[in-house]
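I hope you will forgive my troubling you with a question about protein structure. Could you please explain, in whatever detail you think fit, how the structure tokens follow from the sequence? Thank you for your consideration; the sequence and its tokens are set out here.
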Amino acid sequence: MPRLTDILWAAKKVPLIPKVGPKKVPSYMKVNRHFRYTMYKPGSIQSQLENLPGRNRPPVMLEPIKNWKYYKGDLVEILEGKDKGKQGTISDIIRERNWVIVEGLNCNYRRIGKTPTYRGTYIASEAPLLHNQVKLVDPSDNLATDIDFRFTEEGEKVRVSQRTGRIIPIPDEALDKTKEMYQEQPKDTKETEVCEKTFKPSLKSVEEQLMDAYNIVDTGVKPKTYWY
């Protein structure tokens, strides 16, 4: 027969009223409150790996920019870092992080394919730069310059160099493609073929249209149908 002290000790360990509180959710079911934009495009596998469920990182605080002055294809000069003073072309822009990527500059090198018998190889990847770490290059003297936004007589908003007053045009690859700007390629479908009307409405079924197209004659006797 158990002693009274043993019964009281067991009752103390197991409470009669269970504690009520929020249920613990597994980490793989948690939803990230703040999406972290990286060098990879949203929706890609690499971007999904950077934002796995349960990996809730604090939001990135950014400086709001009213007038974005860089476009893909612009020639810029780097103001900070190991490539300070060098000029290059913007290959990509990530507005969600105020990043610009200059082609072939500000690169990080990493080694891949290393084995016990092979030393591996190094590959270069451009690291992002903040928008205030680069400046546009004035096409008149190929020097870095600050710009202002002004309007032409036609009402078009343009970028103007503060030093020389010359307009810095927006690269063609950054402009929205329109029908007039597109050049027809050899493998494109001709406009006359696209506009040609080939559909002929008919009350026949698909099977009957195929039989007419391939000259198939139905020799069977159709059963009677009744419509009520």
Remarks:
- Helices lie at 4-13, 45-50, 191-195, 206-213.
- The two ends are 86 Å apart (CA to CA).
- Residues 37 and 96 are 7 Å apart (CA to CA).
- The first strand starts at residue 75 and ends at 78.
